[in-house]
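Q: Hi! Curious about what Methyltransferase domain-containing protein looks like structurally. Here's the sequence.
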Amino acid sequence: MSVDARYFANLFAASDDPWAFRTRWYEKRKRDLIMASLPKQFYERIFEPACANGELSAALAERCSELVCHDLDATAVSLARQRLAHLPGVQVEQGHLPGDWPGGSFDLIVLGEIGYYLDPAQWLQVIEQAVASLNADGALLACHWLHPIDGCPQDGRQVHALLEQRLPLYRVLRHEEADFLLEYWSCQPSVIDLDETCP
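A: Let's find out. The predicted structure is below.
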């Protein structure tokens, strides 16, 4: 992680919801858009690094058998564990990217609001790790704020530009607004199960 861990520690020391995930309409709407952008109804195993206090994680847990969450900050991990305690198949651990990558393979990796906290070399390592741990029909969802953030080595456009350059996947969805960019990339050119949709 390029941004110092104290940055996040200070945020969570001041509030248990420093980005107002629970209260801001912008965050709720973006979360709903992320969930609506997932073309599959169900994923076996999902990895969500930078889970913060677990608001998006709670929605993801409803769509999978197993959810693996990470966050760099110990307070965030504790809050996420409390938020997700009632949901089966959820594991929340303290970890940072690119160094702490979970074992096993995933059907979906969700990289939300994390890329600009990493320098380009670290972000490229995350991209490589993600590709290496996706199942044959796996997918990656990325969503990032597009405006510059003080102290961050990249902005959202740079983060997504590197995804476009380095991901050997098919982009099946792109949603851009003035404030954020949301993309879904798949190992397969189509995410529709033709056996379920065709007569």
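A: A fun detail: The radius of gyration is 16 Å.
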